[in-house]
Design goal:
By secondary structure, the chain is an alpha/beta fold. The chain is built from 16 helices and 23 strands. The chain is globular.
């Protein structure tokens, strides 16, 4: 019997886990310059997993200097694309090789079910590195059609030092969405993971070195956004910031760029996705199942969560009945139990935020059809029931602001015009969906929804070949696909006079 066929005792494995906790700078682990640390908390029981180096401006200075030195040395930035590919493919394979350790670390650090970490997060992270490795020697530069007396070459060069700031909800996936294209195109990277879930980023830095990445090409600096994050974004020797996180902090990234060296800033920020279900939806059960998993998956801690069900009044009751039925089957459980489908909220602060939104919905007059409570308090962890609101007015707080928890707001409509107006009437534009058996209606509504991704008769479909990012205050730029490589390169024109 193979290792994959055996049932892993995750609780036993957790007792032996010894995560990396120091910053990774210039190819070595080291404590923060100040010696300061912060507690890394297990969301499932509220206990301290480890004390992690709390990096600040002095640590950022060292990390950026290391990244700049490695970039200018050219051992990576000027290495042939095919040679970079070999290293990145080894890096991806090492992530796969250590999938159990990384999945366990991700679950203990962030609270998501271990089955999701094993089946989704770690494979997706490895696949992202491998996909960009395979792409890097297949993207061609250009020759401009200038005429016979000149030759104009349009080439893509690495940006230089990339500062990558990633969130806590998909720690390793989000990191690899940025590391893949940034490293493949020859940049050096300073990665700042969220202080709520820094552990897998610290471990994979070591794996990248093992794969053959030169010293200084990847540095990882755990710390808080208002210290390490600000220092990185304000640094005059950082050429590009790639950020995923809240819209509030994303706006600060733009300010930091303007106050420093006008570095490129690429933002993937919040969302308040409308999941629009027309009265002629072909399969209510399928639509309801997608709606339920669209909001309850990953505890609703997703910028792309289907948090607004915008549903035709003729099918609203049938949709809600099925969603509530599914929600009842997804009671929060121990994240280390492979049968658990809904894990823990990341920490006490986020738990309070989610519960505050639920109370707001109740006070504003929405009806609670399911859940609405904190549960499993005896565990010491941070768990919230799947929660469904009906009779939600589009002006309510729960219908307009990003909750980042398993809370669904249901808004009904009478016709297509009203549905589109409701769907677009928020400051976000990351994802959206439309369900209809009429392909003409589906196309017309999809074209009018202001979102970076519009799903038709599905939700949260995913592939590395398609870009991910948003309109409006959901940010700019795109992760995934070949388009992501544009974020980490500069276009250069070289004009040669042949006359």
């Amino acid at each position: 019997m193979t290792r994959e066929q055996k049932a892993v005792d995750w609780r036993e494995l957790a007792r032996t886990l010894t995560p990396r906790t120091q910053a990774f700078i210039d190819g070595k682990y080291r404590p923060a310059v100040s010696g300061a640390t912060f507690d890394c908390i297990n969301p499932a029981d509220g206990r301290v997993i480890a004390q992690v180096a709390s990096c600040e401006a002095a640590d950022i200075e060292l990390a950026v200097a290391s990244a700049r030195k490695s970039f200018e040395a050219g051992g990576w930035s000027r290495r042939a694309p095919a040679a970079r590919k070999k290293v990145l493919l080894r890096f991806a394979e090492l992530i796969r090789k250590h999938r159990e350790e990384l999945a366990l670390t991700e679950t203990m650090d962030m609270g998501k079910p271990i089955s999701d970490s094993m089946k989704i997060d770690i494979p997706a992270a490895a696949n992202s590195i491998a996909w960009y490795a395979e792409a890097v020697d297949k993207v061609y530069d250009e020759v401009a059609p200038t005429g016979h007396e000149s030759l104009a070459l349009i080439t893509r060069e690495p940006s230089g030092v990339v500062g990558a700031i990633v969130p806590w909800n998909f720690p390793l996936i989000m990191a690899c969405w940025k590391l893949g294209p940034a490293l493949a195109t020859g940049n050096s990277v300073v990665l700042k993971p969220s202080e709520k879930s820094p552990l897998t980023a610290l471990r994979v830095a070591e794996l990248a070195m093992e794969a053959g990445l030169p010293e200084g090409v990847l540095n990882v600096v755990p710390g808080f956004c208002n210290t390490a994050g600000e220092a990185l974004a304000m640094h005059m020797d950082v050429d590009c910031i790639a950020f995923t996180g809240s819209t509030r902090v994303g706006k600060r990234m733009l300010e930091y760029s303007g106050r420093s060296n006008m570095k490129r800033v690429w933002l993937e920020c919040g969302g308040k996705a409308p999941n629009v279900v027309m009265g002629d939806v072909a399969d209510i059960e399928r639509a309801a199942t997608a709606a339920a998993f669209g909001i309850f998956f990953n505890q609703g801690e997703m910028c792309s969560a289907a948090s607004r069900l915008v549903v035709h009044e003729d099918v609203a009751d049938a949709m809600l009945e099925k969603i509530v039925e599914i929600g009842k089957s997804m009671s929060p459980g121990d994240p280390l139990d492979p049968k658990t489908r809904l894990g823990a909220i990341v920490d006490q602060v986020q738990l309070n935020t989610v519960l505050g939104f639920i109370e707001s919905g109740k006070k504003e007059g929405a009806d609670v059809r399911l859940g609405g409570n904190r549960v499993r308090q005896d565990s010491g962890g941070f768990f919230v029931e799947p929660t469904v609101f009906s009779n939600v007015n589009p002006g309510m707080k729960i219908a307009r602001e990003e909750i980042f928890g398993p809370v669904l707001s249901t808004i009904t409509f009478k016709d297509v015009e009203e549905a589109v107006k409701i769907a677009n009437d928020v400051s976000y534009g990351l994802t959206a969906a439309v369900w209809s058996r009429d392909i003409t209606t589906a196309h017309r509504v999809a074209k009018r929804l202001r979102a970076g991704t519009v799903y038709v008769n599905c939700y949260d479909a995913d592939d590395l070949t398609v870009p991910f990012g948003g309109f409006k205050q959901s940010g700019n730029g795109r992760d995934k696909s070949l388009h992501a490589m544009d974020k980490y390169t500069e276009l250069k024109t070289t004009w040669i006079d042949l006359s």
